[in-house]
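Quick start: read one record
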Amino acid sequence: MASLDTRIDLGGQQNSWNGSDGSLKHSEHLISHRKIVRRWNQLSRLQRSLVYVVILILITIVVLLCTSKTSQVINREKLTVEKELSNASSLVTDPPPNAEPLKKINIDSEIIQKPLFTGPGNARQYAVVESFKHAWKGYKEHAWGHDNLKPVSGMAFDWFSLGLTIVDGLDTAYIMGLNEEFQEGKEWINNELIFTKQKDVNFFEVTIRVLGALLTNYHFTEDKMFLNKAKDLGERLMSAFSSPSGIPYSDVNLGSRTAHAPEWAHYSTTAEATTIQLEFRELSRSSNNPVFEDAAAAVSEKIHQLPKKHGLVPIFINPNTGQFAPHATITLGARGDSYYEYLLKQWLQTGKTITYLVDDYMTAIEGVREYLAKRSSPNKRLFIGELSSGSEAFNPKMDHLTCFLPGTLALGHMNGLPDWHMTMAEELLYTCYLTYAAHPTFLAPEITHFNMVSTTEDMYTKTADAHNLLRPEFVESLWYMYQITGNTTYQDWGWQIYQSFEKYAKVPNGYTSLNNVKSEKPVLRDMMESFFLSETLKYLYLLFSDDRFIIDLNKYVINSEAHPLPIHKN
């Protein structure tokens, strides 16, 4: 208690001292202020004016100094922002170090590098160029402006009346450096190719052959004429998506812009409905109109949702219901093949950004390994069979069309898919090679059958399946394998096949399909398909190049008709 009283007394004493000091300071302040006022009153008017001027000058100087510092701060901030923007811009516009001086096309804010072609560089390539010139010359003389040439009879044949051979084969001429042929084909397209005829065409075939070719030629040449033709055609083809499910109808009337199912069935072919996405997506990117890509991508998304047999799909789908035909054949041959091809290639085209595409592809290839990949007897050759309609019983037959698969598997492996894909590709490619080597013509039949229990032959060919249409699938896979591995054995295999085409298929007016590869003197079928110029000769030319990367698979996806389309970032 005593200590508490002491603290109180001390506090009171301290407060009195503070009050006394405050009074003294206040008195001094008042005296000082009065002196200043008195002295100011003693000044003359002139002296007061001078004081005002000095004060005004000082205020002006202070304001100017403050303004200058603020400006410096703003300028420094502006320079910092401009530097940051410049750095960000350089990430988009600066070329990579050591980049080749390639011509560029600006499409949808992306820079598309255009390949440069310098013509043939060795004897094998020169030979293929001469073959193309021979086929083009015969077509020009006997079927110019028509879809196909019948080279034995020298007659023309029309399927869609769209000048398929010109349009489909034109980028091959460009790649080969055949300027004269390219210019006359380009002139025909500019002046004669129209889409107003009241005639049904196959949606899939016109998409991959005509739309794909127009887009490729646009990218190669930067000529807007090709893009304008592609947009016109694409708008007319859009009627195919008018079905209740969005799954495209198979037949389109370009003139009336209407579409319908084929006369023979209510179904569309699964491969056809799912092999138009690369082209429609590229048309959207080139024209800056998303409607084409949206319609085509919706088909892939719809089929992604459907139940499958370990990723494997039946070959027919109903455009009215959007459902697969029950118990239809499952195959990687006709009507099924390119569904699997375009799963992978769409994933690559979109910069590997749509994961369900590669997931569906991976699941499907696992399904191929489990259900369709078998070995023949006695030499255990790997082949890809079918599951028959109705019973889903295994059928040990393989279409030549299935020989696209080794190239597709190798392309997937190149982009990070499992090693066993490449092993399967190598084994299957050798089996495809044997389908050529097994015959005296060294040409493959349309369909090869395999023995599962035999002590003599692994494979055989039925007479009804022995024809050869000069198809490209095997040489296509050879080119993929050559670019990816650098193994020149694939070039030698391709040269053997090319020599067989020269020996058995070449006629005075072009090249003809053959009736029976088992005969040393095969009957001529009198038809030169547009894909012989578009695909077969193109792939052979690329295969024989000393430069494996004339068309770099890191920059382009190749559509189902061998028309290169650029890879995008998304």
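DSSP finds 17 helices and 20 strands in the chain.
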